[in-house]
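Lay summary. Proteins are chains of building blocks that fold into shapes, and those shapes determine what they do. In this project we predict the shape from the chain. Here is one chain we studied, written as its sequence of building blocks.
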Amino acid sequence: MNIKFEKNTNVSGVLTIEMQKADYEESVKQELKKIGKKAQMPGFRPGMVPAGLVKKMYGTQVKAEQVNQLLGKSLFDYIQENKINMLGEPINAENHEAQDIEKQDDFVFVFDIALAPEINITLDANDTVDYYDIDVTDEQVDAQVKQYAQRAGHPEEADTYQDRDILRGRLAELDADGQTKEGGIIVEKASLMPTYFKSDDQKALFATAKKNEVLTFNPSKAYEGSDAEIAALLKIEKDQVADHSGDFSFEVEEISRFVPAAIDQQLFDNIFGKDTVKSEEEFKNKIKENLAKAHEADSDYKLLLDLRAYAENKVGEVEMPTDVLKRVVKANNADKSEEEIDKNFDKSIAELKWQLIKKELLKANEIKVEEKDIKATAIEAARFQFAQYGMTDIPDEYLTQYASEMLKKQEQVEMLAERCADNKLTKALKAKVTLNHKTVSLEEFGKLFA
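And here is the predicted shape, written in a compact code that computers can read:
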């Protein structure tokens, strides 16, 4: 077998494999022997079918399989051994005559190869990038305290209605005289939240509602003809709503009020663990510390985006094997139209350019992502997810278990590995480049992504 590779541009080349019959003949014979031992044909005992008949029946198929196996192995072994920095996959060369497996014994396979362009970049103290420090305000801390108190709150019974209370009681349809309608709708233990009525007039009817009081209102007016909401309240189908557009009586049997948790030691312990903080001042300081830490992660993410833009600008234009890569994309997405492929191709090339630059930066900073790093990133991802729901005191054992479930999915592993590489690179470059610190409010920071 003869294999050769020739570059035809700085970022593409042609790899030719010349395969003779002697290269695959023995493997074909061995495979036909294996088939012959199991072959069955009328008139012959199992395993006793003549070799000539076996070859006639299976020869072309086996030849194709062995040639393809040898071709694939030889192709990728050569690329690996010769350290060809390939992008994407080899693709059959255009305008090369197709090989006839059945009629030919010797073959010539020609592949176009997309090559990664050479990129040289380093970032150090001579490079200046903006870094946005997000200011943590007292208002943000107070809002977080309120949110924690709401999450830990509980319902209590009340005697008089206040905004956002839930009313429960007997709902009954009335006739034209204001009496309970014979055969009309009656809903026991119906639930109302007048706060969400669309009609202010109907909402006002409940402003001073008291327990055991009977009030009259019109659901159709209260919800301004929203069939879904009316049907849910009256326990009927939407197509029946129009038949029940009159007044209803509502006997207030229960008033339920959601009460936020007290800002006390129990709340402190629920959020941060027993005795971690022991006063409201310490509670707020801890919240401020956590918000600052979360903001730093946001600032680091913005830094990575800005480092990317800075690095791409510093590298400048990069020659890419676009023609070969587009053919590879088309071959791998036969179900998509050329218009769809063209629409996203430029974005894919831009992302590929960044991946090549990032690869050089990771190499220059001697950054490697190991299995233990991916596991640690998974645990932090789990910790962040729980923190989103105010659960900041999750035992490490539970976080590890949760992370292990995440790592069972290859797609998750790849995503976490990428995130880990980004985090390591951001940390390394943050310490190397010159940061132009700018203090901004959370609102101003959000506008940077608009």
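What the prediction tells us: The CA atoms of residues 365 and 428 lie 7 Å apart.
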